[in-house]
Amino acid sequence: MLSAADLVLLAVAAVAGGGVNALAGGGTLITFPALTAVGVPALSANVTNTVALAPGYLGGTLAQRADLAGQRDRAWSVALPALLGGVAGAALLLVTGEDLFRSLVPWLILVAAVLIGADPLVKRWVRRRLAEGEEHRPHPAAAVLAALAGSVYGGYFGAGLGIILLALYSLVLPETLVRVNALKQLTSFLANVAAAGFLVFSGRVEWTAAGVMAVGALAGGVLAGRFVRRVDPDLLRALVVVIGVTVAVVYFVR
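^ that's the sequence the OP posted. Answer follows.
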């Protein structure tokens, strides 16, 4: 049973996580450790985190819907793999169980921290590659496989999913960074919503925590939108990486 103090901590973490997701990405590296800190078992914490934060992806998708214009067929082609991948990742999480997931947690957090730290480098690489897009033909089947592979990871844990999808899509789609980013956002939304929908029935959701965190994350996203021009995303990203690495070390020591 979570105490009032626990719920306050989760609310604060969710506001921070929602804001970080809106500004730089990596909010899971704040919200997931907060859940385990108040005593929620690792697997249940991951399930609860997925359910609580899934609605927040809708805002980012809607904000970039104009950049999906002209990509209707492509969006439809990755939609089903994203949904199936999200469910498959969530199912894998439940089937493999608490012990395996707990042993993987520090590695997953460390990998996510590295991915988030590498985000500017990945985007520069993507820009260079996409600038040569005229020399490459799109590979629709490869885009489907990229959506599926990324979404399985997203359904299992999810931190750093956007960076993984951005890199994968850039390999197979000769498009501008803005348009690839919009497709990445749609895929992330579908994968997370599918995973959350599946996990709702798992019996692993800490519903009080999920409700508090969902409200907090949405509030954090709204607040971040008002201060977006005053915050240095690179500095914020560096802070998230430091938090992620620190948390990973703590889990390794445990």
